[in-house]
Design a protein that fits this description.
Elements: H1 17-40, H2 44-48, H3 58-77, H4 109-129, H5 142-164, E1 189-192, E2 195-199, E3 215-219, E4 222-225, H6 231-239, H7 251-260, E5 268-271, E6 274-279, E7 282-285, H8 297-306, H9 314-322, E8 323-324, E9 329-330, E10 377-384, E11 404-411, E12 428-430, E13 439-440, E14 444-446
Parallel strand pairs: 10-13
Antiparallel strand pairs: 1-4, 2-3, 4-14, 5-6, 6-7, 8-9, 10-11, 11-12
Helix pairs in contact: 1-5, 3-4, 3-5
């Protein structure tokens, strides 16, 4: 569970405990149904195998999900005796790096499933018998929401493992909706005026510690892409020699490109004049109108430089996604405060790919920026750092140990993210070399109205929308 202090109450909306219980139970059951779908679709030997040294065997994720639930919901919340204390160390993510986990004496698939099911039955019983107030850990059902988010995050990790595994396709889903008729006529960028906005949250009941507390941030004026960068746009970067020209790369990025021999996004390959990609066991032409995915931070940063632009800072991204200039406040989501629906965002593994750029007009922000939630995680220019007044809750190892310049922030979620683990304030982070994640990006540039009492952070290296930076 980690050893950090349990501090900081969770503010809840004025809703009854039975409503909170129902919401928590629904989130837990939805996560478990997805876990089962991701692990029941392959035979036991594939569950035990490690498909990439970057990822755990699927069976490790399965038992780890149950072990975290046992530690937090049965022991910490319910005060119950440990069911399997001898396996705590096996499923401690900090004790055993992913590459070493296949060598551990892991629970075999049948035992892992039975253990997770036993824990879940007992956890639902704890949920029914726990007063959801008083203690910060249970106020507004926080611990149950935290565990639902944890399981969904591992479900996304397992989906990444499925993308990395070789062999026939075992997952299926309908395609996302086509781009609306107005997609081709959208402006290339949206202007976000300079000024203050409220970043983060102090009221979202299940927000995690790194999203807290809410604070005022002054962001100078900027322009941001209306939609994420597409495959077609990224191909132009490749064809113009982007991977061969050190001008567009940071020194660290250029060294990484040379060392790893990068020439295109992960899972792409070229056959003649055509680019192909492998997507969950299917090889297909790269669709030009989808957001580019499986690019690392260095690649996103280099593209932005080549285009004469830059990556948005985290504060710029959140202001574009949440600030409503008419209402003068920050929204929960780009479209407002209502929970996500299928016509607003591509979430929850309903589709196994991003939607075409320009999609989901009902999910646009008040300023008209589209696809800020779902489709692809979006790299930002910012390091993963705590907000002013941050306090670790309920354990240091969720966020605090990752703060610093080693990790870059991603925002917005992807098609692989469930709505319980995605909101306008949600912060993801990863190393700048990571490409197996469902990561894309959009670009930004500083506007003329960029004066003010503070800066958004990050650097602004270039201007001029839609044109390649001059040599």
């Amino acid at each position: 569970m980690g050893s950090g202090p349990a501090v900081g109450p969770v503010t809840a909306p004025d809703i009854g405990e039975e409503t909170i219980r129902r919401h928590a139970a629904e989130a837990l059951l939805r996560a478990r149904a997805r876990t089962a779908a991701l692990t029941d679709c392959v035979p036991d030997p594939e569950l035990m195998a490690q498909h990439s040294p970057l990822m755990s065997p699927l069976v490790w994720d399965l038992a780890h999900i149950g072990n975290q639930e046992e530690q937090w919901l049965l022991r910490a919340v319910g005060g119950r005796d440990a069911l399997r204390p001898e396996i705590d160390g096996l499923y401690d993510a900090f004790e055993h790096p992913r590459a070493s986990r296949p060598a551990l004496p892991l629970l075999p698939p049948a035992e892992a499933r039975a253990y997770a099911a036993d824990v879940r039955a007992r956890a639902l019983d704890v949920l029914e018998g726990t007063a959801l107030g008083g203690r910060p850990l249970v106020a507004a059902g926080f611990a149950f929401g935290m565990i639902a988010q944890h399981e969904q995050q591992h479900d996304e990790t397992m989906l990444i493992t499925h993308q990395l595994r070789r062999g026939a396709a075992v997952l299926d889903a309908p395609p996302p909706p086509p781009a609306p008729a107005d997609a081709a006529a959208l402006p290339s960028e949206v202007h976000v005026p300079g000024g203050p906005f409220t970043m983060g949250t102090s009221t979202e009941p299940w927000a995690l510690d790194n999203e807290r507390p809410a604070h005022t941030r002054w962001v100078p004026g900027f322009h941001i892409d209306t939609v994420p960068v597409s495959n077609a746009a990224y191909q132009r970067f490749i064809e113009d020699g982007g991977y061969e020209d050190p001008r567009w790369w940071t020194p660290e990025g250029w060294a990484h490109v040379r060392r790893e021999g990068l020439r295109a996004p992960l899972f792409w390959r070229r056959e003649g004049a055509q680019w192909l990609r492998r997507r969950f066991g299917v090889v297909e032409p790269v669709p030009p109108d989808e957001p580019v995915v499986h690019v690392c931070w260095y690649e996103a940063d280099a593209y932005a430089r080549w285009a004469g632009r830059r990556l948005p800072t985290e504060a710029e991204w959140e202001k574009a996604a949440r600030h409503d200039p008419v209402a003068g406040r920050s929204l929960r989501y780009p479209w407002g405060d209502a929970d996500p629906t299928p016509d607003r965002a591509n979430l929850g593994q309903r589709h196994l790919r991003p939607a075409p750029v320009g999609g989901y007009p009902r999910g646009a922000s008040p300023l008209g920026v589209r696809q800020l939630i779902g489709d692809v995680w979006e790299w930002t220019a910012s390091d993963f750092l705590p907000y002013p007044g941050f306090r670790a809750f309920p354990y240091r190892e969720y966020s605090e140990v990752f703060f610093g310049s080693a990790h870059k922030v991603l925002r917005g979620g992807s098609f692989a993210v469930d709505q319980v683990a995605c909101r306008g304030t949600f912060r993801n982070w990863d190393l700048p070399v990571r490409r197996q994640i469902f990561s894309g990006f959009r670009t930004a540039r500083t506007a003329d109205d960029d004066t003010g009492p503070g800066a958004a952070g990050g650097n602004a290296y270039g201007a001029g929308h839609g044109t390649k930076a001059a040599p």
